[in-house]
Amino acid sequence: MKKSKEQKYSHQLITGISFGLTSGVITSLGMIVGIHAATASKLAVVAGIVVMAIADGLADAVGLHVVEEAEVEKGKVKHTTKEIWQTTVFTFLSVSGFILTFVVPILLFPLKTAIFIAIAWGLLLLILLNFCIAKIRNESPVKPISEHVLLALFVVIISYLAGSLIAVWFK
Question: Does the structure show a pLDDT above 50 at 152?
Answer without folding.
Answer: yes
